[in-house]
Amino acid sequence: MFESNHTDHLSGWSITRYQRVLAATYFLLLAVWSAGIAFNGAPDESTHFFFLEYLKTFHSLPGATEPAQAFTGTISGYTWQRGEFWYHGLPFPHVIGALATSYGLGWMLPGELGYLAARCFNWILGAVFICALFRIAHRAGMPKKAAALAALVIALIPQVSFVFSYFNSDAFGLMSVALLISALLGFLKAPSKLAALCLGGAIGLMLLAKLYLLPALVFVVVMLVAHHLWGGKSLRRHLPTMVIVAAIVSVPMLLVTFMKYGEISGISGQIDFVALHKNNPAAGFGTCYIGCSGHLFNMENVLPWLSLTLTSYFSTTGWMSIFLPSTYYMGAALLFILLVTAAMIQTARVYSRDNRRIFLLNYLLPLVMILGLFPSIILLSLVASQNSLPQPQGRYLFVTIPFLTLLIAFATMSHARAKNSASSARDVRSSRFHLKWLVVVVAWMAWTNMVAWNENTLSSKNIQKSAIGKTVTDAVLASGAGSSSSTGALSAAQLTERLSITNGEFFIKTPFGQAAAAGTIDEVRKTSDGWLLRGWSVPPATDGSPEYVIAVEAGKVVGAIRVEIKRPDVASALSDKTVLRSGYEGIIPAVSPPDKCALKLYTVTSTFKIFTMPDVCEFISRLSH
């Protein structure tokens, strides 16, 4: 694993040049991804942004009970209400980095896009991440060109690009894992004081990451101990250097966090989150996965959980609500199975009785630990979901992503033992074969990444409020879209016919349309105030423009939402510029429990006609299960 069996040409690009090109390319890709994501258009961005906004405004750390009153951030313009939830008790290196980039780059952006300057720190982390992947592959024995392709294969996973494109703490953790593995390989290949400094720094960064990324540290400790005891390398003399550097990097922030919040794990914030949602039937608190109904695994609950976990490991953007077509997930699963199979076969072919110890240390031990990460993390996540809230999220498996680069290195390594002209020729043919396969996989991953970006950027929430979406909206408006049609209001004759007076009060008849309004319900979410509904509605063109979505239950109108959001995606899909203003988003009071839902939605037009809409109870029922 630490010695290349391939011929790496001295001509061509240097290692430094490969890393510069990879870093610049990936930085630009992440910027494009980020421009298509509205603020808080991805999981928990506002909860992380609160810390940043508070720190920038008050130059102090927020207490766990903040915000004590409504607070509007100067970077994002977002308002946090009194007592609104945010994650506290965690180390915050990503916040410090974002604070620096917001000061350094914020002046270049208009006020409404200031959040992009804070996100820029994660783009930088992404550039560091892809360089670390390249070094992992190259130090594991891959030629430079193949190592660059392997790094691209992993970095182009849609979920990886998505995580690095908005403000969150997972990006820092993912980058730290990649740096840690890269530093470990460099140290084991050539133990030195400089290598020990790098490994100690990487360990320090890992100690600032979230708990579910710490299995990477277990991998490092096991590898170091194994190589010290059985690898014939005296690593003990470098231990003080690693410990001191790791402490210098991590201890100051860990101390500040502990002194302020009384912990460094963020568990109290997670407990608050569970308490906030446990009484919500849609949250699924108490769902049983293991040791229930007389079975070890309740497959009725486990299979949907596992399906969503694995899909969100590869690509689930938005608020875990935007998916790719199923063929892409099938393709990713096939590639993963082929990768694991090839890695196992190639590892077995490297075995030699003469070098049994090297085989065990450099190949079998790391392969077994890498493959063991997947079932062990999934099992622990199932236990956590059962004891708190069901959270089938691929982010708990993110620690495995940099290790995929090692699997690629295993799958493409040479197994020739005798060094002669025949074996060298076989190595060259093998390298070319693997290189061609890597090119094909990179092309497929690039296409998949583009499809995921397109789906995410054109989603209703992002196309309305993102940097790209605002540009599109302005262009549509400039072209004359959204102008009122001649049937946009009641005519004098219609008003005369439908207006009446009863007991001194005016009443207007609102005819019920025979046809249903075109449209979809994009999101239904339970909140403390009721059901949050988001979507679009377009009635027949001759019956006026949509004005309100009303909710009716038990013969009463229980709420209404104004149709006022511009939807350029709808205008484009229907090839009709007049339907630009067709989106709605608001809260309808929850009158009855989800299992007895009788809610009906209707669209009211500018001509006071009413049209039916899709069945909202179908969505509510799905959430309750």
Automatic annotation (TrEMBL):
Taxonomic classification: Bacteria, Pseudomonadati, Pseudomonadota, Gammaproteobacteria, Pseudomonadales
Keywords: Membrane, Transmembrane, Transmembrane helix
Annotated TM spans: 21-42, 113-134, 146-165, 171-188, 195-226, 238-258, 328-348, 360-384, 396-414, 435-453
Ranges in coiled-coil conformation: none
Chain ranges of the Glycosyltransferase RgtA/B/C/D-like domain: 114-254
Native species: Pseudomonas syringae group genomosp. 3
Protein name: Glycosyltransferase RgtA/B/C/D-like domain-containing protein
Entries under Pfam families matching the protein: PMT_2 (PF13231)
